[in-house]
Automatic annotation (TrEMBL):
Keywords from the named record: Signal
Highest taxon, organism lineage: Bacteria
InterPro entries named among the record's database cross-references: Beta-barrel_OMP_2 (IPR025665), OMP/PagP_B-barrel (IPR011250)
Protein name: Outer membrane protein with beta-barrel domain
Natural source organism: Flavobacterium cutihirudinis
Signal peptide range in chain numbering: 1-20
Every Outer membrane protein beta-barrel domain range: 20-169
Keyword check for NADP: no
Length: 188
């Protein structure tokens, strides 16, 4: 009976160790450099646009599938948008869109600490804060992401990523979200 309990305890401890190495959870946050490239007219009115600086924050998980390959799903609160200046206006107008973003990144480790990352991202509009009265923002945004990740320690990491929107951000304008993200995070 003692041998059976000893073997069961050993198997349980080994299983917990293997799972801890294969699945990690963490948090991340960082800065967004967002813009909305596309057609420079809205309802026949010409305007210039500039990017905005905003933020993102959320939770991440890393599932190690092979020695040098992992999948990293994330759940992020991310703000994006642009600043608009209409030809006849004296001031700028900011259009800021808040999304719940769900990127799923494939990570290929080039070295023990440096990874190449790429994958799709689905985003759902949570709120729209603007001075322009663009009340027609699409509630769903689909993008492709690519970037690099660097593990500073086993727990601390940094990432740089570019997100290219593939769907229009507005139903009345031919504009898409484009974001450069710089992040820092901690894995538990």
């Amino acid at each position: 009976m003692k041998k059976i309990l000893l073997v069961a305890a050993f198997c349980l401890a080994t299983s917990a160790t293997v799972h801890a190495q294969l699945l990690k959870f963490g948090v991340k946050a960082g800065v967004n450099f967002a813009s909305q490239p596309g057609d420079a007219t809205l309802n026949g009115v010409a305007f210039d646009k500039d990017g905005i600086t905003s933020f993102h924050a959320g939770v991440v998980a890393e599932v190690k599938l092979l020695e040098k390959f992992s999948i990293q799903p994330e759940l992020l609160y991310s703000t994006q948008g642009a600043t608009y200046k209409f030809a006849d206006a004296q001031e700028d107008f900011k259009n800021e869109l808040a999304y719940l973003s769900i990127p799923v990144m494939a990570k290929i480790y080039l070295t023990k600490s440096l990874s190449l990352e790429a994958g799709p991202q689905a985003s759902f509009l949570l709120s729209q804060k603007n001075d322009v009265r663009f009340d027609d923002a699409n509630t769903f945004d689909f993008a492709l992401n690519a970037g690099l990740g660097l593990k500073i320690t086993e727990s601390i990491f940094v990432q740089g990523r570019y997100s290219l929107g593939l769907t229009d951000a507005s139903s009345n304008a031919d504009i898409r979200n484009s974001v450069v993200q710089l992040s820092a995070g901690f894995m538990f």
